[in-house]
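Q: Could you fold this chain for me?
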Amino acid sequence: MEPAAMTVREVATYLNVDEKTIYRLAKRGEIPGFKVAGTWRFKKDDIDAWIEARKADATSDARDDDAPAGGARRSR
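A: Sure. Below is the predicted structure, expressed as structure tokens.
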């Protein structure tokens, strides 16, 4: 059975990033988390949903990068 909430260390390990990165993202509200008695906690389902949203954003950005500059090309 997985824990109800993950610690900063657990999220950092899960995402393969430094703990400082998790603290920074949490403080900025860029990753879903909450404080309990002054310490950050994260629900795994929220982190997984956050990852999926980032993947969707990356896919959308990649499609935008493939579009011709200045919009669609006109044929002559």
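A (continued): The CA atoms of residues 6 and 42 lie 5 Å apart.
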